[in-house]
Amino acid sequence: MVSDSLPTYSDVTAAAHRLKGLVRNTPVLRHDALDALAGARIFVKAECLQETGSFKIRGATNRLLQIQEDRRAAGVVAFSSGNHAQGVARAARLLGMPALIVMPSDAPAVKVEGVEADGGEVRFYDRDTESREEIAEQIAAERGAVLVPSFEDPHIISGQGTAGLEFAAQMEDAGQRLDHLITPAGGGGLASGIALALEGAVPDARVWVAEPAGHDDWTRSLASGHIEQNAPGTRSICDAILTRAPGEMTFAIGQRLFAGGLVISDAQAKEAMRAAFRYLRVVAEPGGAAALAAALACLPEEMKGKSVGVVVSGGNVDAAEYARILTGA
Amino acid sequence: MVSDSLPTYSDVTAAAHRLKGLVRNTPVLRHDALDALAGARIFVKAECLQETGSFKIRGATNRLLQIQEDRRAAGVVAFSSGNHAQGVARAARLLGMPALIVMPSDAPAVKVEGVEADGGEVRFYDRDTESREEIAEQIAAERGAVLVPSFEDPHIISGQGTAGLEFAAQMEDAGQRLDHLITPAGGGGLASGIALALEGAVPDARVWVAEPAGHDDWTRSLASGHIEQNAPGTRSICDAILTRAPGEMTFAIGQRLFAGGLVISDAQAKEAMRAAFRYLRVVAEPGGAAALAAALACLPEEMKGKSVGVVVSGGNVDAAEYARILTGA
């Protein structure tokens, strides 16, 4: 049973304790112009300013800290389009472990370089013809290394959830309170972790997930009550959140705690990146800007006029692509 | 005597108390790659993430809070290439005062729009044929409004200095300590305020100012012991820090407390903007990146291996220019 191993609020608070001093307390930013565009009070948790440029370091570090001392020398293996890759590589370096990451051959160069800068070894695969899961499992078996999943793991989920716990505390410090929170969702590790955090810290707040059109697996799964898959071959610029389907664990949590899914277009993701540049002066990558895009472009009526938390989950984007998007391409 | 009215450390701590809740506590960011490029431990105080996109809101708010209630209705007047303009416009809005800003006709559009978004009135002038000081003084006299200088004022200086106080406290919280600090300098309000803050909070730390080639008035003034002017007509992309000469107050403080000046090229400022994008995921404007440029491109030998604080002072740059710079233009 998946439900036996699901993390809870206390796992998120334990993770926050464990990660203290190892990850950054990222700022909450806001701007009147964003409030005006959304028709609500928008508070942005800037996880693009996190170590390695995304929230992924939280879950990765929390997971790697569980590995027994005598197994650390064999290292870790992960597969990822880039942000989890960098999180795992950095966490492994912090703990003195070798890391090998299986990455798609079309991953943004900035993400590949991020892994390599932390001493991670990269094995490329072809998105269309190879299975990254099989490659990673085979290498892990050969090396006796630990395979670190990108979302379907209780320690990953509770680690990512620390972003939500931090967000709630920062709002309270500022005399504010979240009515709603929107977060980008691929596999749903961040979203389900945040939902657990808010269940304990701000029980009235409602958690929504944002995802690109064509990859609206969460929206459809939440509506049908079953895990729904995305059609293979669908493309989006939101590379960080393109997964085939919600995980069993993340869906079990999401089904209980998520208010719903919000679907955005690539054009809306780009517009949100431009808004983050202009009004917040932070760099958001396409997938990282999905929740901000939903807030600015298609905020549901029930959130209008409310305090809406938005997670900008990553900022790893190649300069040339970013420049093209800034200038409206 | 200028020295009679100079602010001190206690003015900076009083300003910090006054500004609590009115300005943002901006984050301190770092990245291994910056340390490697500089050959030192680099800690970046990201004032580009401040309200209005630069530190200027600190001094402006601290200054406007000094205006007696019965004088507030007549409002304030300021002249500025853009960041002080936005700081004054925002501070005036917070206190319910009208604001008119005299801005150069070639100011970046994003800065003009920032002023207007806060309800500020803009009067353009021609950098080459008109005197902004005369225009501003005349309008202030006509309206009975208070003229808010951009640096030559004890409350402006002590307000800007709160960035340094905050930086010192954040470093202490992280178990770190600044050996040196580099900040961009135009008129020197931020730099002299920070120097006062560190004189009290981290007395051993040495404060350096960074400025663009052709506008190295601080470097020459500190060397000669007299206020030196820049040649008229010299251009640089660092629009935020192009002033004719140090102020009398800021120079009196700087002469006593600054370790020296560091001169950077426009190309080095652009390289620092690219580094801030890539490694910190924050948007820095050219002048705002001057200190980071000095750290990465020409760090003096005595700072190598040390803990060096760097202030990125602003992030207000037009998207098209930023895109050109990101792609190496």
Explain what you see:
The structure is a homodimer of 329-residue chains. Chain A is an alpha/beta fold and 329 residues long. Chain A is built from 13 helices and 10 strands. The first copy, chain A, has helices at residues 9-19, 32-38, 56-64, 83-94, 109-117, 132-143, 154-173, 189-201, 217-224, 248-257, 266-280, 290-297, 319-326; strands at residues 28-29, 41-46, 76-79, 99-104, 121-125, 146-147, 180-184, 206-212, 258-264, 307-312. In chain A, the strands form 2 sheets. In chain A, strands 1-2-10-7-8-9 form a 6-stranded mixed sheet, with helices on both faces. A 4-stranded parallel sheet of chain A has the order 5-4-3-6, with helices on both faces. In chain A, helix 11 (266-280) crosses helix 12 (290-297). The radius of gyration of chain A is 18 Å and the shape is globular. Chain A starts with 8 loop residues before the first helix and ends with a helix. The A-B interface holds A 24, 26-27, 29, 32-33, 48-49, 53, 110, 117, 274, 277-278, 280-283, 315-316, 319-320, 322-324, 326-327 and B 24, 26-27, 29, 32-33, 48-49, 53, 110, 117, 274, 277-278, 280-283, 315-316, 319-320, 322-324, 326-327.
Average pLDDT figure of chain A: 95
Biggest sheet strand order of chain A reads 1-2-10-7-8-9
Order of helices and strands of chain A: HEHEHEHEHEHEHEHEHHEHHEH
Q: Which regions of chain A have little confidence, pLDDT < 50, spanning 5+ residues?
A: none
What's the quick description here?
The structure is a homodimer of 329-residue chains. Chain A has 329 residues and is α/β, with parallel strands linked by helices.
